[in-house]
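User: Could you check the structure of this?
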Amino acid sequence: MTRPSRITIVHATLVVFAVLLIAQAARVQLVEGDRWAERARRQQFRTGPTVAPRGKILDASGNVLAESRELVRLNVAPTEVQSPTAVADLMRKAGFEATVIRDATNRSRKWVILPGLHVASEVAALSAMRGVHPQTVVNREYASAAGIRRVVGSIDASGKAIAGIELALDSILSGDSTRTSFARDVRGRRIDSPESWVTAPNAGNNITLTINRDLQEICERALAQATDSLDASGGDIVVLNPVTGEILAMASRRTGKVSMSNTAVTEPFEPGSTLKPFIAAALLEMDRARTGEVVNTFGGQMKIGTRTITDLHRAKELSLADVIRYSSNI
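Assistant: Sure, the predicted structure tokens are below.
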């Protein structure tokens, strides 16, 4: 029997290798194709939330007290930058410090997050440079007055409402967020892709308060002057429309500490004698009492339920006028 030549053995080996290669390719593409395609999609695409812009908060005159703005955060991949000099010049014009510019053009760095948030139009030229990756960020901006901030409240870095109107009416202001699918490269950075999809979120609703910004500022100044001149530990002012009950201004101040809490709402207090003239005036207006009418004050001590009410000026009975004069609790 004739032994096969070396050429024949090599050809046979190549044929067997080709057949095995074709079989493996067929198995991967036909039998396991769906599984590998899904695995590739998970590696190349990421799904993340797209936060809906919060609604505006306005005062009674339509002045904006809080609003959301789309700003841009810039990231730089130094190894992708083709013109470090041009990028450095644009960063310098945008107001970045020299140390940040050096980091962003240092090719030994793979990814640099630039500090601050910027208006898109102001950094458009820099954003268009190769190696610069802009990221849209929704930022919440508030009126500068501290008194307004106490009323309006705030949200944290993740967009969660934590105080004030922002928290109380969060379901109205927040809107409906959606989810976005986007492609990413081997380093996890976002890239444009025809398979990316975005569903536009529904923005939150605007809210108009009964607060008047100008009146609020007047109350803030008056309260500061009053607490300073009287050496008081603090104070609160609430201005209401007596007909509708609408709150027109609400100012709070505590000396010796910085607090964004609205103590006119958060701290309980006893109105005490300041409430008695209003009750007496209502009784007189409805003809339910007369100034000279005498009422029983029980010798300055009276028990209601489990509590005992006392008067500083003890008397068995007092006229309505004397009740106000001596501030009878009973």
